[in-house]
Amino acid sequence: MPHIVVPQLGESVVEARVARWLKKEGDRVETGEPVVELETEKIDLEVGADQTGVISSIKHREGDDVKVGEVLAVIDAAGAPAPAPEPKAPPAPEAGTGGRVTKQDVQSAIAPTGENRIAPAAERGVAPTREQRIAPSADRREDRVRMSKRRQTIARRLVEAQRTAAMLTTFNEVDMSAIVGLRERHKEAFKKEHGVGLGIASFFVKASIAALQAFPQLNAEIQGDEIVYKRYYDIGIAVGAEGGLVVPVLRDADRMSFAGIELGIRDFAARAADGSLTLEDLTGGTFTITNGGVFGSLLSTPILNPPQVGILGLHKIQDRVVPAGGQPAIRPMMYVALTYDHRLVDGREAVQFLAAIEELVEDPASLLLVS
Length: 371
Fold this sequence. Notes:
This protein has 371 residues and is an alpha+beta fold. The chain folds into 2 domains: 3-76, CATH 2.40.50.100; 149-370, Chloramphenicol acetyltransferase-like domain (Chloramphenicol Acetyltransferase, 2-Layer Sandwich), CATH 3.30.559.10. 27% of the residues lie in helices and 26% in strands. The protein is built from 9 helices and 19 strands. Strands 9, 12, 15, 16, 17, 18 and 19 form a 7-stranded mixed β-sheet that branches. A hairpin with a 2-residue loop joins strand 18 (318-324) and strand 19. The protein is globular.
């Protein structure tokens, strides 16, 4: 009989979890029809039937961990669904006289007994107090929920980053006036021409690539006792999803236009929301950008995405009073943070890298010269 097995899940992914059976034993399925949903550390995917038939046996329950190649279910190509057994009516409870419920039955059922009757405070000898204590809530339940594969992986990788890398974070402040003004002047024409809004992310992607070209230590990784410098720029964009943070990758981002970057980020956000990101989308990356400002974060210290040695954190744009030409002025300001692996990147390079991004973002026309 044909089997439904755990398919190949992608590079370095060898295990999945049975998240949900879409069919049950005895159900008829058509070729290609989804039968079971698997949850991996990166994505969720549906596994379909290889041929038409009836599911004769399900080998793993929901919540079971399974490895690539394991049998999930067996299909009987010649079978037919078995008829469901007729449900039996439950026996009626005995009550009253001749099976009838009487008034006395109802009163007996609702009347408090000596065992469960709560005595008044006076009978219990409890003296009244000036300030009554708040009684504890009757509902003090706790829910214990198994971690998803993705959440387990996020937890493991965050701890791994803290344990294996010498992480340090440096901060800077960027005046966003030029970008805010540029977007305001060109947003309508940009959207009309390219079908996507002009956000701030594309400016920081461009600025990051220029800074990475100037400071290649931040576009590298450590492998054993060797440093591997990447001569390509695959920029990971952190995206919040229902099941946890994911980091899809813009491949060869140095060759992308502003519109291409914005379209790519929009596509990632949409597919993260509907769960259609692929393993290829999430694999690799030489540097990561995360934007906590979309959730209102004013300042944070991002954690590295191993084996990368740098991650740039963007934050909320906020009007602040800053000195300008010897006078106080209100400007739209953003704190930016760079977390780096001190094993490979020295503090001087990290600070200069962040200063380079500040200069490029505050003069966005300069990005055209380095693109």
